[in-house]
Hints:
By secondary structure, the protein is of the alpha/beta class. The protein is built from 18 helices and 14 strands. It folds into two domains: 2-145, Orthogonal Bundle (N-utilizing Substance Protein B Homolog, Chain A), CATH 1.10.940; 230-447, Vaccinia Virus protein VP39 (Rossmann fold, 3-Layer(aba) Sandwich), CATH 3.40.50.
Amino acid sequence: MAAVALTRILGHSEGLDDLFESGAGRRGTARDKKPAGSGPAGTELDPRDRALARAITTAALRRLGTLRQAIGERLQKGLPRNSGALEAILLVGAAQLLLLDVPDHAAVTTAVDLARRDSRAFPYAKLVNAVLRRIAADRDAILATSDPFDIDTPPWLRARWSDAYGEATARQIASAHGREPSVDITVKADAPSWAEQLGGILLPTGSIRLTARTPVVDLPGYGEGAWWVQDAAAALPAKLLKVKPGETVLDLCAAPGGKTAQLAAAGAKVTAVDRAEARLDRLKANMHRLKLAVTCLRADVGSLDHAPADAVLLDAPCSATGTIRRHPDVAWTKRPDDIPALAAIQFQLLDHAAGLVKRGGVLVYCTCSLEPEEGELQISAFLARHPDFHREAITAAELGGLGDLVTRDGDLRSLPSASIPLADGTILDGLDGFYAARLRRATPAEIN
Ligand SMILES: C[S@@+](CC[C@H](N)C(=O)[O-])C[C@H]1O[C@@H](n2cnc3c(N)ncnc32)[C@H](O)[C@@H]1O
């Protein structure tokens, strides 16, 4: 199944979650519709096999450049033409040999079997055996010489991040993308006690970082709806609204509902809006598990007709380049042209969202993108064309004292290379890349 998934992701720009149908934490894109012929693969597999197939696919995408180079250097005549799933089979084998804890013989035998079962890869079964055995023998040298920035990051992203953050930081971002991220959760209440029960680490921002690799559904509190999976950086934008019980909130582009749950748990009257039916269904299921009451509305935010709210959160569709640690497919499925196209959509959604904020109310705009056009530049252009809004600077204290996450303008900018200092002196690494700005709409008195 991992070979099928890789072929589909690399060939058709489908996403990991589209194929493995995981749900939690999936970042939506402008293209909510799946390409023809797509759909969850391997539904016949049991959950453990499915999880393994996902782990192999994720590892292969995380270090795709390294694996392709290792394979290419061991194919004297390059990849044969019309060889069906041969490349995907080699990638799956190499990922297991180099990156996962799979015995060499099992990885090689499985790959050879896969080649024998594919009519076009069949003639190359012996080649698969030879290439993978050589990769196993050269494992240490391959891993010692491969660099996630130089090899595993597409050149256009390398250039963009170097321009935006400097090459040294861009290298640290790529290095963070090369490591498997921890699982963070948000709790409805009583984070210190849940951190203890789950054996996790309470982060200064209030999220809990799990340390065990137990499937989340088997952990205490999951079934009873006490918490949900959410990257610690993704949990920050909803907090910036500082909602009070009973306030009305429009959560725009809400599915699968991580931020909706935070707002509802804070006691706000939340209307969650998303245009993708399947994603909205997932949001409803999540709220049901969490026992949180939320009004759900299927609509396009760009033409949403709704009474203005005390607070509006716009988690706009974006390139999701801040989530490559969790979704390494993004590095290979996104294209340079996607950035201006998404920025144009964000521009339009932001303008419409502005009209849904009560006078004196607050608008938080956020994206999980590392690209300034989807963050800082989007907001400076918005403020220039909306004089009735001003930026309300975010403080380090609101982010658990993590001052490095606050920009000079007072916005939130987290990077995958972030370090999180704990009270005991330990430093944890890694957050998803997020941008958020808090904007206040002037009251009538302020305007006059
Ligand atoms: C970044 S995800 C939202 C993540 C969500 N806020 C959370 O915290 O779980 C973006 C969402 O925007 C939705 N979306 C994209 N364009 C939209 C539009 N024009 N109107 C409404 N929803 C849209 C997608 O379906 C996707 O669910």
